[in-house]
Amino acid sequence: MEVTLAHLKRGERGIIIDVSSIHIPLKLLEMGCLPGNEVELVQVAPFADPMYLNVNGTHLAIRKETAIHILIDIINE
Amino acid sequence: MSKQINVALIGNPNTGKTSVFNALTGLNQKVGNYPGITVEKKEGICKLPRGVKAHIIDLPGTYSLNASSLDENVVIELLLNKNDKDFPDVAVVVSDVENLKRNLLLFTQIKDLEIPVILVINMADRMIRKGISLDIDYLEQQLNTKIALVSTRKSKGIDELKELISNYKELSVEPCMHASEIDKDYFDGLRKAFPNQLLYKLWLVITQDVNFGKTDRNEIDPVANFKTKSKADLKRLQQKETIKRYQFINDTLKKGQTIDLNTATDLRIKFDRVLTHKVWGYAIFLIILLTIFQAIYDWSSVPMDFIDSAFASLSEWTKNVLPSGAFTNLLAEGIIPGLGGIVIFIPQIAFLFLFISVLEESGYMSRVVFLMDRGMRRFGLSGKSVVPLISGTACAIPAIMATRNIESWKERLITILVTPFTTCSARLPVYLIIISLVIPEGRIFGLGYQALTLMLLYLIGFGAALISAMILNKVLKIKSKTFFVVEMPNYKWPMLKNVALTVLEKTKSFVFGAGKIILAISIVLWFLASYGPGDDFNKAEDIVAKEYASQNLSEEELQQHIASYKLEHSFIGITGRAIEPAIRPLGYDWKIGIAIVSSFAAREVFVGTLATIYSVGNDDEDTIKNRMAGEVNPILGGPLFNFASGISLLLFYAFAMQCMSTLAIVKRETNSWKWPILQLTIMSAFAYIVALIAYQVLT
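Above: the input entities. Below: the structure tokens describing the complete assembly.
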């Protein structure tokens, strides 16, 4: 099974692998959500939607419907 | 030298671009709309060294030149159109020292358009605290630009920026990287097909279609048809371009910027663990809201009372000083109260925007959007609709003005259309008097029936707003991509200058925008209430005097009867009579009809009008209440204001669009009469039906 951003738990971090899905708005890439960058799930709203991320120093919130298209590797500490 | 330099301020949101604009222009700024769309256009004049003047445009904040909203598209339309009178001689890209990497993306795109560019690195005062040091010479050389290190908070670097602007001709227009390397074949083909056009401009025109749909460009229209690639391919190429740009930026910053993480402190995460928490986040938001509303009610009641009485005495004074006649009456009873009806909203509008701009400046508003998004999405709204809906309980006018930061036009339009359902403060006088007439005083579980009714009316208002939003979401066929990416900026202390300018500008735009229309309708209403056809109106004095000749009335009482008789036979009174058949099934008589018609100007007029009709000298609520309680239903007998007609009236006012000021502001914000007219028709029809059903079921 592919691991996506939606699988992250609060406080966990991962490395972005792939953002080429057409469901990902270009704006997200422009804000630094690019392959190779580290992403941390800072906080989630109720029902884990929206999700509050720290991508490479940029703090932003996205909806779960977008997060399920962002493939990542979870960093195990 | 007389020529003005055109300067465009461009930058990501939350970089303090507006602070830079305020620092450059001060009070020499004005806010308008771009023709045909409702995006705000901010421009101002700045005096440069050696007597040169600069015309500065503060363009909407954007993360890149790939537009996804109307706001962002304005930036591209201007930069692509050399013939636009505002086309910049020099672009000033504003960046934030903490987010330099992300901010430079937009910078490299603008460089590719071969426009002279100055890079402002703002919030330089934070560098030490964040452990950031920059090699400015190296960055200037790599980025092919001049850099101004600015701190608007500490008022540093603005003079240097002005100096750079006045010397814009010395700036290099060479791009700092070559984006076309992402697909050599494709871009070579493009260059061959349109040899006279700038390559990057061509690329933007082609991809703008993919991003945003239609645009008007006669100059290079054939370019849009240069479709040798599918939409999906173009999108992939845009992703490649973004990655390429970030590579260049990373390489540049690796040498040009060092960040000592040991000295860096980040309070944001600590704050956000609490402020966006599943439980605490909502609790804190609720407390902030309650505080704000309490403050708005408390703080604005004193100035509002003052304005009310000041205009009343001005009106009185005018009547006494000027020779009596139609002109004096128009001035004293039409224009001055009309102006008063505009000015009286100023305290609430100013206070509301004071709070909203503090919340926005501090960065907290993004957290509210985060907390509320999911709940609002169910109703076709966005997290960003929360602020207007809540502001609506004070007054729909500032609330509708506060929808401007909703990117999706559809979500914004729905928010504008449903906001008037929330219970605004003008409904309160109407609710209070009717509740006190028809709802018994008893208690249940320690809560008064009357208080519960009032609370229920507030809930009905919110419910109506949410349900109609859900319906509109299904019915409106507006294509607007709704994706949700919200930046969570760092918390900052709001800057007094920015807050003050926002409050000033919003208040001004209300007074001069909606004010004109309110004034016009006030004059019309005055005319209709002051004139009437035939002898009944014109000889009212004689008729009334004859009728009451046998009763020994004091002069004052006689005057009240005359005024009441005149109103009954004025144009507005005749209108009341004419609509009586329509409102009788709702349990109202013609007098209530007049009150409803005249309270179209503003809901609170209802009480005042009934006061005049029932010949009460003032609209002191207790006296009018006794009079209303004594009114007898002319057909059925019994009190006119009974439980059935009272509930019917309450529901009518809960749903009806009885506020021309709101209609005026909706017209202004949507730039069309279509939406306010639709709003008026549907809300009034719904109010009528609900009031009808309520009365018929309850009698």
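Note for the figure: Residues 5-75 of chain A form a domain with the SH3 type barrels. fold (CATH 2.30.30.90).
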